[in-house]
Amino acid sequence: MATQHSITIKAGGSEKDYWKDLWLNKQLLWILSKRDLSVRYKQTLLGVAWSVLRPLMTMTVMVFVYSYVAKIKADPGIPYPLMVLGGLTIWTFFANTFTQISNSILINHNLVSKVYFPRLLMPLSSVAVGFVDFLITFGIYLLVTAFFQTPISWQIIFLPCFILLTFITSMGFGLFFAVLNVRFRDIGQLIPFMVQVGMYVCPVAYPSSLVKGTWYEKYYNLNPLVGIIDGFRWCLLGSKSYFNPQSLYSTVITSSIILVISLIYFRKKENTFVDHI
């Protein structure tokens, strides 16, 4: 028999009660996650195949533009397509998750206006789409690795750490923009632009070794995605791939601070969502 529980809505309920309700509604989190996954490719001709075609087509274009036209080289001993796909794999996880979280409240506006549940469930459920796409792209990366006969390094044991950092970073930025998106609909137009520009600002299609020793390297490393992307590639390609451990300081500190601030901001504005939807 399924376990039943009741939720009593009280004015000024404690923070402890909120997180308890969040845990009690974990089944709703699973339902919302499954729905987001099914809706993503519903009524599409190719369905899940888009998750395979997108990274491959993006990698092909980037290799042509950056390697053949711009003559940018990968770190010595690393095939350029493999470097690009490694960066794309973790970048896509961040970009998709950030975008889904930022739009999660508006996508679920019908639930917000009718049913009570911890609104944080909606951003959390949005992570499922980005994570499934990440797993598919990572599978493609392993196949490309086999094609280039490049062995996976032992540093892969640290891979979960960088995946967790990506989740923290995307959740932190996503929650903040999710709140703004409810109040100011212009944010919905800004988010795709930010993601598009971010792909060029971050070392997705070029190695960070190009920045090494320059006067702006310290400012470059302030970007929390730099440490994540370089670290992710280092986990897969080993010491051949350039990775400055100092860039992780910015990643950990910035991402943690933004996540805490965004959680506080989200909780403060959560009860006002229904007024603006």
TrEMBL record:
Identify the residues that the record assigns to the ABC transmembrane type-2 domain, covering every copy: 46-269
Q: Could you tell me the membrane topology recorded for this protein?
A: Multi-pass membrane protein
Name assigned to this protein: Transport permease protein
Record carries keyword 4Fe-4S: no
Q: Offer a single GO CC term for the protein.
A: plasma membrane
Q: Which residue ranges run through the membrane?
A: 44-66, 78-99, 120-144, 156-180, 187-206, 247-266
Q: Pfam families from the entry?
A: ABC2_membrane
Keywords, A to Z, come to: Cell inner membrane, Cell membrane, Membrane, Transmembrane, Transmembrane helix, Transport
| UniProt entry tagged with the keyword Membrane | yes
Q: Where is this chain's protein located in or outside the cell?
A: Cell inner membrane; Cell membrane
Picking any one GO molecular function of the record gives: ABC-type transporter activity
- Name the source organism: Dyadobacter jiangsuensis
Stated family: Belongs to the ABC-2 integral membrane protein family.
